[in-house]
Amino acid sequence: MNDPLGIMLVDDQPERAEMVCRQLRAAGYRLLVHLNSAAGLLQQVDNHRPDIVLIDIESPDRDILESLSIINRQNPTPVAMFSARGGADFITSAVEAGVSAYMAEGLSAERVTPAIEIAMAQFRSYQQLRASLERTQQQLHERKTIERAKGLLMARKNLDEQAAHKTLRNLAMNSNSTMLAVAEQIINHLQSQS
Asked: What SS3 string covers 79-123?
């Protein structure tokens, strides 16, 4: 059976936070920590390693978004933000900073579980897209590097494309290496001769 999700709650309203904490526990979540403000959010996320961060701050500001942006780059974590501040620019900035689910109204007991589910689903979807993009970019880099090495071999050794490709492939097999590694070596070697 899966461990219950570990939740970090950032809420500056004590009464609401108490109600949300009760609801989280009743729903079977582990409340790792409740913060009264977003001050030190980076360090707190690093210390507690939550599965998800719930934020309900009356006036979220650029500092929170900057912290979330850093978290999103260094230690991607699902975030659900609740705020009456619902302007399109702020919401866009929040999503760009890594907020997985943005609710334009405050947190309430009945919204806790759906918000967590939405944020987790959005986060997983985004991470899959991100990984796919990184794989595609890596494949494109590899292809460009191999094509460049083939072009250099064709120009310097007077080979046709098929012969240049065969040369790369044979060098890779003989050195028990990848075509990318061989292509990089060829590019470096031929450029150093220029």
From this structure: EEEECCCCCHHHHHHHHHCCCCEEECCCCCHHHHHHHHHHHHHHH
